[in-house]
């Protein structure tokens, strides 16, 4: 149960910490959907782009496993029957069963206990980035990755499944946690466009550590969404169409503190543990420049991931 003073506004910080369950959150008052005012996604304020009012109103909020959202909600008046629920999510014929489920009742009361924490009446303003907005930076290169799956016994649909996320041009290989060899090498300071394609008949949630990205295309259609994320759904394939579903992401490798090796993967625990993971290594710009201009690098550059 969620309680509050009738009519007050609250800031909810929501994390989908489930292993494989997708959420599509909605708040109902006497059966009628109410708006959430989203102010941040995956830890980044929506105003980060410098565009708009910094709040987006929607009557539902989708959260894949690992997804986070910060939303402003209103507490209903006394006597209003209110609840927080997750709507059903179609995860594909090979996916999970995520039906409609009630999560909590919401009770507005004049006698509700005071909140344990409150936002400052005069908060310190966020430090603004001095970097150009990600959406306006031309990408240094494009990469294509895709999700696939393989039954260990093709004749037994209940046999264990091996999961893959593969860079176009490489062979599908399940992730080896004992390997430190990167699948992708990136230069620090660069911005890249990654196409993530889903060749399976179940929904996957692409996630990358250390950085955020901006969605620029959904299934080949340009979108105007000036938000940053680090996890996003990639639509499932219907098994019939000749074009696989995909998303196009503007990846931000400009933070100098991210030099090193870190993973990208599907955020469904069963999938990432089953092999759907890869490594990206961010090299200092100076080291990459020196390597690319060495004679040995010129001979082997075609084999670089």
Description:
This protein has helices spanning 269-273, 285-292, 295-300; strands spanning 2-4, 9-15, 23-29, 32-34, 36-41, 44-45, 56-58, 61-63, 68-74, 82-86, 101-108, 141-151, 161-167, 184-187, 191-198, 204-208, 213-218, 221-222, 231-234, 246-252, 260-266, 277-283. By secondary structure, it is mainly β. The chain folds into two domains: 2-108, Sandwich (Immunoglobulin-like); 136-299, Sandwich (Immunoglobulin-like). The strands form four sheets. Strands 1, 3, 4, 8, 10 and 11 form a six-stranded mixed β-sheet that branches. Strands 13-12-15-20-17-18 form a six-stranded mixed β-sheet, with no helix packed on it. Strands 2, 5, 6, 7 and 9 form a five-stranded antiparallel β-sheet that branches. Strand 3 (23-29) and strand 4 (32-34) form a beta hairpin.
Sequence-ordered SSE layout with sheet pairings:
Blueprint: E1 2-4, E2 9-15, E3 23-29, E4 32-34, E5 36-41, E6 44-45, E7 56-58, E8 61-63, E9 68-74, E10 82-86, E11 101-108, E12 141-151, E13 161-167, E14 184-187, E15 191-198, E16 204-208, E17 213-218, E18 221-222, E19 231-234, E20 246-252, E21 260-266, H1 269-273, E22 277-283, H2 285-292, H3 295-300
Parallel strand pairs: 1-11, 12-15, 14-22
Antiparallel strand pairs: 2-9, 3-4, 3-8, 3-10, 5-6, 5-7, 5-9, 10-11, 12-13, 15-20, 16-19, 16-21, 17-18, 17-20, 21-22
